[in-house]
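Minutes, project check-in
Item: structure for the 575-residue chain
Input as provided by the requester:
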Amino acid sequence: MGSLRKKSYMKPLPAHAELFVKKGQQFARWKDGKGKVRTSPVTEASDGSLRVSVDSGKWLAKYRDGSGVIREVATGCRDRGAAQTMLTDLERRAELVRSGVISVAQDSIADHASTPIIRHFEAYREHRVTQELNETRIRNTDSRLRRLADECGFRRLSDLSGEPLTRWLGQQLSVGMGAGTRNEYRAELIGFANWCVRTGRLTLSPFDDVPRANAKADRRRQRRALTEPELGLLLHVARLRPLAEYGRDTVRREGSGTARGRNNWKAAPLTFGTLEAAVSTARERLANNPDFARKLDQRGRERALVYRTFVLTGLRRGELASLTIGSLELDGSTPFAVLKARDEKNGQGSEIALRGDLVDELRQWVADKRASFSGTPAEFYALPLFSVPASILRVLNRDLKVAGIPKVDDRGRAVDVHAMRMTLATMLNKAGVAPRTAQEIMRHSDIRLTMSTYTDARLLNVAGALDSLPTFSSTLSCVGPGEMTLATGSELKLPPKLPPATVQSGLSESSTVILTGDFGDSTCSLDNSETSMKPTKKALSEGFSDKASEVGMTGFEPATSASRTQRSTKLSHIP
């Protein structure tokens, strides 16, 4: 038989409590927040403070479950009658388990169904922490789940349903949320539900039928790759702009007239044309402060190196920010950087190959940092390799503006930090790198991402690729007995015989076609528009044996989808 009780807990002695002694025991008397007088024995804690025992306002149910284990369950009820109803339900379920009507797993699911969903979110977060996932990723997931629970009305697991989520996604569409973002919210809730199924909290996911938005038809963020000249401009500006900002001229604000005052002046906009002069001016102004000038110069050097590392490694912003000096292996035959699993998007961990010129710059960068560091070797290797702030996009936008590189091109595609990764994929494609190798460098699970999504087709030399193809001709001429030539001037000797009923597919128009029979001194031409061979002097059947004539006639019939003109050739006979 189950029982109900209120759990006691210790709390500090209330500030206005009255102390008294009764039968040798010290007690405290005070009024709680509702004005009710409470009395409790006083005990002394290990730190010497006085504490009182207080009963919880909610009832705790104690019973024996279906497996024979005594359990205590918080009912969450302040009313004893409501708590008794919950206890009766728990005992009834225990009896069903003992009698085999329901399983222990089904009984456990029923327990989880009444637990507040926030508790499940907390357990899910702890599970992801033990997986050593990226902290930012865990934080974003938790934020999205809590928003969905609040706006969809999910208070407990029993409230989870696909209909509220579908309705919420439709509402976000109406207010302009992109398809990609809506899919991310949907994926987060599906991931949580699948975890609940694996841990015995749900029997199945209730979100399997929620439709996925078409992200291809509603792409809000379209990127483009940078060209090589643009990259050169960007690196030059990034190297000099931190120092140049302190060398800008001052100009009068518009509308200030001739009025005096500091607020009527502002720094002139920095452009690519004024960059070098601004750097010279800044060095003159900071001649008496060489440490600050050196700091600004170091900042520009770091920024340019960060951009180069983005382009030559394909690292994402968070991945590059996670690298420490100890992540670099620069002294081996194949230098690389170690990317830990918790810092990589796919959670696998990778060794990022480093190109030789980048290795030289990184080696010098690390040596300079070591020269100015005074801590222990362990502390040095734990230092971040670069300072990559979350606001680096604003820095990039200013660098683009000074370099004269349009942020958005004529097709509405923008340049951002992740566009550096797209630039790498595009350059690999232009360089003729094998697609499988490019996929490995980009660390993509699907090669279609590498060759389509991350490759800017506009920068590919499509016209040059077409020009590299061989010249094709639509005219085929017979120049003499046993010889045939194309309009391109290529000439091949023809073998005297061709076995009948030989089929060869894939005939190239640029190849010499081999025919059998003796044309004598006749000349003939092939017109692709009519797909027929027309003799100019002799009948085609003259001089052919029966079988050869049969093959020849088959070859000169109008072409069908099976391309009968190809059936009269055999390219393997070409020397």
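Outcome recorded: The first strand starts at residue 3 and ends at 12.
No further action items on this chain.
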